[in-house]
Write a structure and sequence with these properties.
The protein is mostly helical and about 220 residues long. It is built from six helices and no strands.
């Protein structure tokens, strides 16, 4: 282990103990650790935005226009297109700064609308093609290799259909068919939420074990 790794292990262990001090109640050490975490996160995000976004995606494409006259027409088209996209992004970013002043906040509405639209489209696309479509595809593959797989496929299909049907915009009469569909859908939804909670709990316990081991390793380094 290099000296830098040793320092990182000790600092990480100290921060872990500071965070765990919250078990004794809200105190200065816990607040100090949270401030360090927020400050380090903000500094890292700022560095990433400057280096990976502003310099790479805005400054470099715009500065590349200086070389547009000495390249082929195809390359010139690419350079100009990238510069236009970078310029639009820079303009929207500048308009967003007007949100800092309430009097001029309306100027940044175009940027906010663009961000909300793109964010909603990305979230919807991720839900459809990253979650729903793979589940439908996996459910549609009914060529199971055993009876257990066949039963699980049927359960997944029924659970998916009833859960989707339970989110319909309709009024279900008590004791009717739709009411039963909603009840079955809520049952499968409860199972899914319970499994998600168990997964989060297991991940949290695993993280606690990892940080406890880090504290032990730091104590071994200090003792040496």
């Amino acid at each position: 282990m290099t000296p830098a790794d040793q320092i990182g292990t000790i600092v990480g262990a100290v921060c872990t103990l500071l965070i765990l001090s919250y078990l004794l109640g809200d105190n200065f050490l816990y607040r100090l650790a949270t401030h360090i975490l927020v400050g380090a996160g903000a500094g890292y995000i700022f560095a990433v935005v400057i280096g990976s976004v502003f310099v790479s995606l805005v400054a470099q494409p715009i500065l590349a226009l200086q070389t547009a006259g000495s390249v082929s027409p195809e390359q010139r088209t690419v350079i100009v297109t990238n510069a236009i996209v970078a310029g639009i992004g820079l303009l929207l970013g500048i308009l967003l700064l007007f949100k800092l002043r309430p009097r001029w906040a309306f100027v940044g509405n175009a940027s906010v609308g663009y961000l909300i639209g793109v964010g909603a489209a990305v979230a919807l696309g991720g839900a459809l093609f990253g979650t729903l479509a793979p589940q439908i595809e996996a459910t549609a593959k009914a060529s199971a290799t055993s009876a257990t797989d066949s039963v699980l496929t049927v359960i997944a299909l029924v659970g998916t259909l009833f859960t989707l049907a339970s989110f319909g915009f309709y009024r279900a009469a008590r004791g009717g068919i739709l009411s039963g569909v909603n009840a079955i859908g809520r049952f499968f939804l409860s199972i899914a939420l319970g499994a998600t909670f168990a997964l989060v709990y297991v991940a949290s316990v695993s993280l606690l074990i990892d940080r406890t081991q880090a504290v032990v390793d730091a104590l071994r380094l200090i003792v040496k």
